[in-house]
Structure formats: structure tokens, C-alpha cells
Amino acid sequence: MAAMEVGNDVQEQCVELLNEAALLTDDVKKVANLKKVQELIIHQDPALLDNFLDEVVAFQSDTNAEVRRAVLGFIEEACRKDHEMVPKVVANLSLLLQDSFSVAVVKRTIQAIGNIYKITLQWLSQARSVTDLMDSAWSMLGQMKRQIISYVDHDNDGVRTMAVKFMEMVVLLQTYSEPGSLKRQEFCLDGVPMTLKIARPRKLEEEARTVFAEMIKFHGSPHISSVNLMACMGSLTLIARCRPSFIGQVISALESLHANLPPTLSKSQVNSVRKHMKMQLLNLLKHPASYDSHRNICTLLTDLGASQSEVARAMPPVEELRKRQRRTEEPPGAADDDTPGTKRQKFVPEDDDDDDEEVPAGRVASGARLAPVDKMKHKLNAIDITETWAAERLTPQLAADLVLVSMQHLPDAPPALFSNTFTPISAAGTRSQIQHVARLLAAQLTKAGLGPGVEATRNQGIQMTDHDWEMEDEEEAPAGSRRPIATVLSGTVTGREAKKKVALLPSGQMHKKHMAKPLRLTEITRPLPKDELEKSMTAALDRLLAAEKPARVGGLFSVRAKLLAMMSAHFTPQLLDKMLVHILEDMRGRADLVFSWLYEEYCNSVGFSNFGQVMRSTANYEQIFCMLISALMVRPDFKDGEILLTRLFLEAPVVPASAVDILKGFSSDPATYQLGLQLFGQLLSGRPGRQASYVPALLQLATGAAQEIRDRALELVLQLHQSSATLATLVEQHAVERLKWLGEETPPAQLVTDQQSAVPEGVTREWTDELAKLCLHLYLALLPRRESLIHQLAHVYVLTTADVKRTILRVLEAPIRGMGMESPELLTLVETCPKGAETLITRVIHILTDKMELVDRVRDLYQKRVSDVRFLIPVLNGLNKSEVIAALPKLIRLNPVVVKEVFNRLLGIHADTGNFSSPLTPVELLVALHNIDPAKCDMKTIIKATSLCFAEKQVYTQEVLAVVLQQLMEQDPLPVLLMRTVIQSLALYNRLIGLVMNILTRLASRQVGERREVRRVFGPRRRSGRVSSSAASAPSRAATRCCCSCPVDPLREVFDTAPELRAQLRDYVNGFTASQREHLPADVFELITGRKPGEEPVSDCSGCRRRRRRSRPPSRRRDCPRARNRKRSKRHPPSSGAADAPMKAIDY
Amino acid sequence: MRSHTTSDRPARSDERRPRDVITVQLSRVVQSRALRAHPVHGKKSFTVQSFGTGDKVKLPGSAPNKPNIYDFGTTYEHIYRDLQEKDRSLYTQNGLLHMLDRNRRIKPGPQRLQECSDKFDVVISCEERVYDQILEMFESREPVDNTPVHVINIDIQDNHEEATIGAFLICDLCTQLEDSQDLEDDIDELLQEFESKAKRQVLHCVQFY
């Protein structure tokens, strides 16, 4: 009863204290309350532990770090008191270990885990059977252990210190106690049965050695802090004292530390560390197991400044040393006998009492266990080997050399460390001192990985590691086989166990569950099946679409648009179609919907949207945009959509590249190109930021085959070219690129496919005029704006085929003229003309010749240096009239082809432009030709030249010739070739006959005074003219009248050669009225009619004719010398035709 | 003579745990350096205790070779009376009685560190020899729960003037240590700062309970 009362009392007290603590705001009191509870429960009534554990542990979520630490203290104590508590608190420990707010809590947790780990292993070892709970707790502790060990690299100095202490605990716990170790009442591996499945002693020991190696590594790390270093040093010494097998490793670690103190330590820290090390070494020295290393320890101690008496005091009693010495000399088997019996029993618990069997088994076990110790010995050996090696070589000579060499590396002032620690060497030069120096050198060399010792151990080391591996394999096997079974068990056979493992939740968290948890919709909802989802979406969309009017009436129109837009961002293709149809039904009315849709889609694509998943891809937006514009473009009632289309392009958040392509296609349709190009223009001005993306499309349009589109696009391109420098370069690049296509042998496929009328496959494409021009349009348009481009042309020109060259030359005129003579680029081009482009240059010069500068230069050249008239040809049009006329005689003497070119030039033949201006009009040219001095040029050449003129019927039309004849006629003296020209003109244009007759008449009358000469010169020609005229046409009234006005002598001659004319004339004259006859000179009348003017005409009988013929000779004889008569008859047989006449005349 | 005082633990509103600081002095020290530091500590409100580390409590006597020796466990009251009886004027003159009078009001009698089972965060000694003794003590112990303790030595000469200066130095150091959020992490730096400021060599080491 009394006990019950006490129990109840304690319980009530605890409840009261805990309730109070929960309400307290004062942390100090809270901690005090918790401590009281701990005291009450642990020490007065442990039975209550189970009841109150959760309540106390619940304080672990307190905001105050002190409270949390108090909870940790409670947990630790609870576990110590009752091992069954371990599984309940492991999860809590894990949580506390992650405490991110207070390092102090983490440190305290590490401390607590260290103890609990130990306790748990003990518990496991002592338990009759291992339950699942234990297993889980152990594995969780294992995780935490690994984490803590990794904390040795933690940022916080204190945490590192605690981690080191934890490692020390692990090493001590997971190794076997040894003979001569410090007697500690602690649990260690000795107490762990071999049969413990979840914690195999071998595995544990192996782990301990790894952890020890980690510690050694940490101890030797160069930037370790002094606190860590001293903690680590202390831990290592402790381990060495408790587990003498580690002593060698520890001492060599201390040696290497002494030789290489971390450079980061300050002067006083160095002092502290050295002092600490000295103390540790003295402690080691006291330990009997350190006998083997006594020499090393003593040396180190002397270095650290320990006095002989100190060392001597620390030395263990001589008897003990002797005993130990004796023991090491005995065979290991005998040594085993000295070990406590318990140990062997632990190794081979299944052993019989039979000693014969026991010894080998024990040896095997200890052999395997001691293997790492051997390894460590080897490490020791490395220094030892190097030491002896160095000692052999340390002669005074070498020492002096070493000092001299290292002199260079000495700092100017002795470092603090040195001045602090240096003690004058008392025993310099003695054998022991040499040995000591050798040892120091060896330690340094080994650390640097040099010297024979390292090499020797390296070889052995490899063997050792191989051996280790085998051992590990050996050990792995059972562990490995255990693990799969465990997994299989937990995974398949017993779901119960798996549940248990999961069930290790932190204690004291129950009340947390009642806290309001934020509602997460995604957690409590489940996604709809796909078809159902789509069905609902379709239905929803249908309803929304149908609700247009109600929405408008109800004032929810914008809300509806927003809804639709939001929904449409997640549409399937069918729904999209529906939406599209809806929009297209009323383009204007639903434009707002279109835009909110587009913007929603855009927001989704760039991740601005709050709704739905972020797509981060513009594919959807692009698709919808393109769909909309294509739908608008193909609509028959396009007019309605035009505005929307423009708005779409200008107001959409972004015009995707594919939309630009569509627009390009739209623009290249002759039916719609105007709107398309207009859109392009608006895009260019309205979205200047994106100009660069429209330019390529536009450029393609500007180089297309269809002229109207091309011209319009070219305009836009040229505007662009002016507006921005970057775009200008873009445009120019494109132009030059296309220009370069010309240099290829055949038109590139790209060019051909650009064209609508693509050449079918297999047909070899050839450069046509059209294709070549396609390449040139843009370039030529740019040329006047960017004159430097002309050089590109010159280079390309060299490469082109003859056909293309011709095309180029032909189209070059306008742009070159646009550039003008003053263009420095053009002048540079003329100067630096590439080989093969001479024709191009010539052409350029030709085009520009009316510009004075160039002409002046050429004229200069011609007049002063090279009087080759050919130079003048290019600049012909730039010369003035008199110059051309002066040069004419020379010009026409050139090769007929050249002469033709000269004439073309002068006459403006092949000149494409209308502003052709020649110094000479066609009339002037022909007149000039007639006026060439026969002395300068022979008549034949002149005749050829004139006939060239006559060949240009387009220039020398009837009217022109008439003017020419008129002008020639008025000259005095008459040009030699006049009559020839008259006849030729007449041959070309019959209708000139009237004029010719007129001229002849006037000539006839004018030349009365000098008839003789005239007759001599013109007689034959006139006659020929007559002949020709009569042959070409029926004798006209005018012709005969002309004849009538001729002087009588020539007429007579005519009649001699063409008697039938006389009959015609006679008929004509007979038809004259009396007054008309009076105009006719009497002798002419008589000659024609054969009678006096007063006589009546007689019938034309043969007798008369005969008479008349008879009467003629005397007059002929009188007027005409015989010689001439003869000559004439010979030259002009009556049969001579009109066609022959000119040709014969040339001979004249 | 050794005078060891305990002050009341001040209530602290600070969330951080108050640090337990002790100063240790050698038993033979005539003028308690630790004690000097003591009242200053007390006023500054951190928990301070002072201890001796020697075998006996030794106080100067009438001649250098005739010290007054007491066992630990003797009260200040007893020593005070004893000395009063022996030579009142001498011990009043050298201040010993005054000191003992003060001490007896603080705690009953001298304490020996080795016999104290409390755990501290920081132990400060005023002489290297004491420091060595403290380390030796810790080394000889078996660490149980691995709670770290920082042992610091600041050499203070055994005279009134130095003791006064030393008291302030120790107080200064303690204040800094107290203010540190994370002692383990900061102590290296704090000590180095202190060294350069006080121009005194400091020995420092970490040990574990």
C-alpha cells in the first residue's frame, strides 16, 4: 500500500510538473521542471518511465535549445535505466540530430547517441532473441552512426570535436579488449556473442578499424583546428591505452604530427598542442604495452622539452618492463595462454573443452584479428626502414651538404614555431642524436611518400591489401547472405516486420496529429479517367459557347471570354476546332475572345500562368496562332477577316516564325499579295523589335519571280535598308548571296525552286535571262544606295557564263547611272578592275560616258598620249558635236563591227533608257558623213558608212531621210554622195518620190548656170534615178513633170538610153493644156514631142518615130562628145535593171 | 592561502545556457588570484566557483619556510580564528585575515577541484603548473559522457597588483566566452584575440568529462 501511495504521489507530482512546464514561458524553470521529473521518474519510480516518456519527449519540439537538451538528457537516462526505451526514442534522436537551429542540440544529441549506441549493443548482446524492434532500432542507430562519423568534416568546430569523441567510442566499443589494456568497466566487443546476427563482431571490428583509420587521417589533416587536434590526440591516446594493438599507429601519428604541425596554429596554440602532446606521450609511456616504442616516445618527449626526470617518472616500473619483454620473446601460442580465458571463449564459443582443438581455432581467430595490426607494423616499418637507410648515410659531409642546400629555403626570420620550440641540442654528434635525426628525416620522407621504406611497404602493402580483400570476401559472405534473407523476409514473407520498421516513429508526437494540417487538394483528389475528363470538358465548352448571348446580356461577357481562354489552354484538338469554328462564325464580335485566348496561351507558354502546368514551349501558341491566321486567310468572305488578320499580326503577343512563313505564302499569291505585303509593312513598322525575323521572308518575296510582288516587296526592303544599319547589312548579305549564285555554272536549286515554274527533275537547268535577273533584282536596287557593293559584282562577273555576262551588262545601266560618275566606288572599280571583268568596266564606262569627268580624262588621253580613236568610242556620247564629227573619218575606217557599234552608240540603238542623249542626231550624223572630206577618207568607206545608216530603218525613217535630203540639198557645193543618197532613200521609201522630184526640180533650176558641170556630175545619176523610179513604180505624173523641167541636154541623153521614156513623156506632154505647154521650154518640148511648140501633136506612128530618131543624132553629136557616148553605152546597157543601179553607182 | 568562493547562480533571462566557469588556483598561493577574480565574476552574473588543486591548503606563515598548512575540509572560519590567534597583527598587515573574512562569507571552506563532481564548461587556471595538474587530473579520469570542458591557463604573477589586473583580464575573457553563441566554434578565435589584447600567453586545451 505504501509503495502504491509513493507511486501515485510521484505520478501526480510528475503530472503537475509537466503540466506546469508546458505552460511555462520561462525556459529556465521549464528546464528545472523537466530535471525534476527526470529525477523523480528515473530514481524514484522507474516504472513510470513508460507512462511519461512520451510526455517528456514531446518537449523536444520546444523552441528553446536548452529544453531540447534537457529532453536529450532525459532520453539518455531513460535508455540507461531501461533498455526497452531505445526503440521508442531512436526516431526522436534522429530528428534531433538534424536540428538545424541549434548546434548545441546537435552536439548534445551526438553525445547521447554515443551512449545509447553503446547501451543498445549491450542490450542486443544480452537479449535472448533479437526482436524486430531491436533490429530496426539498431539499423537506425547504424544510420545515425554513419552520419555522425561523416560530421568529422562538419563546419562547426564543436560538432567535429563531438564526432571525434563519438568515433573514439565506436572504436573502443567495437574492438576486443586486450591484455594490458587500461582496465575499464565498459562494455566492448568482448560481450558481443558471435551468434548475434544483426551485429556481427567481425563486421563491427572491421568497422572500428576503418573508423580508427579515419581518425588517424583527421588527426593528420593539415588544417585541423587546435581544439580538434587536441581532442583527437586525446582520443587516440585513449584508444592506444585501452587497445595496445593500436599503440604503434598512434605513436607514428604523433610523430608525424610533431614533425608537421598544422601551419594554421598560432604561437600559443602551438604551445598548448605541444604541452598536450607531451602529456599524452607521458601517459603512453606509463602504459606497459608501449615498451616497444619507448625509444620513439622518449625521443619525442625530449624534443617536446620534457626533462629526464619527468620521463623517468613516467616510465613503468622496471619489473613490469622486464616481464613484458619476456612475454614478447615467447612464441605467440604461449602468449595466448596468458590472455584471459573469457576472450577465447568469446571467439570460439562452440568450442569443446578439448585443448588440442582449441588452440588452433584460437590462433586462427586471433590471426585474422591481428592482421590489421601487422599492417600497421608495416607502416611502422616504413619509417624504420627509411630510418636505418638514412642513418647509414648521415655522414658529416652529407649533413653539411643538406644544411647548405636547405639554406636557400630558410625564411629571413625564424618562424614563431621554431623560436618557440627550439632547444639547443645537447648531445649533438652522438650516435643517438644521429639516430634521432635519421628518424626525423625518415618520418618526413615517409610522409612525403619517399625513401626505401615506403617502396618496401608499398610492395608488401599490395600483398597485404590482397590479403585483406580475401579476408573481406570471407567476411562478406555471411553478412551478404544475411542481408538478402533479411530483405526477403521483410519484403515478402513478413509484411508485419516491414510494418514494424516503419512504425519506429518519434515518440511524443501524438498531439501534433491534432494540429490543423493545410489542405492539399492534390492529395485528397484523384484524377478523372481520361475519357470522362474529355467528355466533361467538351460539355463545359459547349455550354460556354452556347452562353454567348446570356453572358453578354448578363454583363459577364468578359468573364466568359476569360473562362474560355483559360480552358482553351488545355484543349484537345477537337475542342480547338470547336473553338475555332465558333470564332470564325462572327469574326468581328469575337475578336476579344481571340485575343484573350492568344494571350492566355502565350502566358502558359512562357510560364506566367497560375493555372495548370507550365508548358514552357511555344508550340501550342504557335499552333493556335497559325491556325487562326490560316483560317482567316482562306475564308471566302475575306474582307471581314482582313481587319482581324491585321489586328492579329499587330496585337498578338508574339508573331511566331511559322506565322511569318504563312504570311509569306499569302503574300506570294498574286491575288492577295497586296494585303500580305501591307501586313509586312505594318509588321515592320509596328513590331520593330522583331524586324530581323520578317526580313528574310520579305527578301525572298523581293527576289521572287512575279514582278508586281517583287517591286512592292523591293520597296519595303529598300525602306528597311535605309531605316536600320543592322537590317541593311542583312539585306546586303542576302543580295550578295544571290548575286554569287550567278557565279555558279548552273542555277542553284534554291533559285529554281523559288520560282513557280520550277524545272522538272532531271532536266539540266541552264541560266536564262530570267533566272539571272532574279538574282540581280535586289542587288541592282541596292547598288545606288550602297555603292561599295559594286566590287562584289566585279568578282562575280568574272565567274559567270557568257549568257549571264550579257544579262548583267544589259541590266547594269540604270543602277550605274544612278550611282553617277562622282561615285568614288566606281572610280575605284575602274582602277582595280579584276582580271576578266574588262568588259564590265567598259560597259560601266560606256554607261557613264556622258559624264564629263571621265570623258575629259579619255579625251585627254586621246589627245595627248594615245591617239587611238578607239578610246573615244566609249565616251563618244560624252563628246561634243564637233569632236565627234572630227573623229568620224577615223571612226568609220575601223573594223565594220566596231563602226556599227559606234553608230549604235551615236544613234542610241540598244540604249534601254529614254534619257539617251547623243551629241549627234541621226540627221546630223548622216549629213556629217556626206560632208566628210574625201581627202581624209576614201569614198568607199564613206559609202559603206552611209549604207550602215540606211540599214537602221528604225532610226532613219522616211521623215528623217527627208530632212537629211533637204539639208544636203541646201548645201553648196552639193555633197558628192547626195544623189546616191537620194536614190537609196527612194529605194527604201517610195513615198519620198514627191520630195525627190521636188528636189531634183529645184536642183535642175538652180544648176542652170553651171549646167555643164552639173550634167557631168549628176547626169548619170539622175538618169539612174529615173530608171529606178520608173522601174519601181508606174511613171507618175510628178516624175514626168520633173523630167520636163530638166534642161534639154540631159534629157536628150536620157532618151538615148531609155527611148521608151520619151514615149511616155510625149504622151504626158501631149496631155498638157496650151498654157501648160507654154511653161515648157521650147527645145525640151521639141525634144519630147519632136515638134515645135506651135505644132499639133501627130499620131504616134513609126514614121514619125523614125524621123524623130533620125533628127536626134545631130543634136547629140553637137552636144555630146563621142567618147562620152561610147563610154556611157558601154556602161549602161539598156537592159540594166533598177536594182543594179546603186551597185554600179558605187563604182563610179 | 586559498580562498574559494561560490556565488549564487544568477537567474538569467537569456535563452543561452549560462556557462559554468571556474577559476583554479594553486593551494600555496598567498594572495588568491582566483578569488580576486571572483567578485568581479559574481557581479557580472556568470556562475563561478573557485578551487584549489594541491594536496593541502597552504597559507604563508611568519617565515617563508613556516607556512600554515591545513587540510581540505577545514572551514574558513577555523582558519580565520587560528590565524587570529597565532599573530593577529601580522596577518592583518598582510591582508590574510581580511581575505579570509571575505571568503568565509562566500563559502564555508576551501574546495579541492579533484574532489568536485560538478561539470564545468570552462576551467581557468592562473599558473602553468596548475594547468598541468588540471590536465593530469582529467587524463587520469575516465570520460563518461564526453562533455567537453575547456581548460585555459593565463599566467598571473603572485602579487596584489598582478592579481587585480588578472582578475579583470579573466573577467573580460569570461564575458566574451559567455557572450559567444557557440563556444566550441568561437573559442579559438576568442583566445587569440584575448592573447593579442592582453599580451599574455594563453594555454588552452579541451578535455572531457
Which features characterize this protein?
heterodimer; A: 1148 residues; mainly alpha; B: 209 residues; alpha/beta; Rossmann fold; five-stranded mixed β-sheet; two-stranded antiparallel sheet; 7 strands; disordered N terminus; RNA_pol_II_suA (chain B)
| pLDDT averaged residue by residue of chain A | 70
Residues in helices of chain B, as a percent range: 40-55%
Please state the overall shape of chain B, judged from the principal axes of the Cα atoms: globular
Given as residue ranges, the uncertain stretches of chain A (5+ residues, pLDDT < 50) are: 330-377, 461-502, 510-516, 756-761, 1008-1038, 1098-1148
Tell me what portion of residues of chain B adopts beta-strand conformation. 15-25%
Oligomer: heterodimer
Explained architecture:
The complex is a heterodimer of chains A (1148) and B (209). Residues 330-377, 461-502, 510-516, 756-761, 1008-1038 and 1098-1148 of chain A have low confidence and may be disordered. With 1148 residues, chain A is mostly helical. In chain A, helix 4 packs parallel to helix 6. Chain A contains 61 helices and no strands. Among the domains of chain A are: 543-654; 734-753 and 766-848, no CATH class; 1023-1148, no CATH class. The radius of gyration of chain A is 63 Å and the shape is elongated. Chain A is 71% helix and 0% strand. Chain B has 209 residues and is an alpha/beta fold. Chain B has a domain at 20-54 and 111-208: Rossmann fold, CATH 3.40.50. In chain B, 43% of the residues lie in helices and 20% in strands. Chain B contains six helices and seven strands, in the order βαβββααβαβααβ. Chain B has helices at residues 33-44, 76-93, 96-106, 128-140, 160-179, 183-198, and strands spanning 20-25, 47-52, 57-63, 66-70, 122-125, 148-154, 202-208. In chain B, the strands form two sheets. Chain B has a five-stranded mixed beta sheet with strand order 2-1-5-6-7, with helices on both faces. In chain B, helix 1 (33-44) runs parallel beside helix 5 and helix 2 packs antiparallel against helix 3 (96-106). The longest helix of chain B is centred in the last third of the chain and has 20 residues, at 160-179. The radius of gyration of chain B is 17 Å and the shape is globular. The two termini of chain B are 28 Å apart. Residues 1-19 and 25-36 of chain B have low confidence and may be disordered.
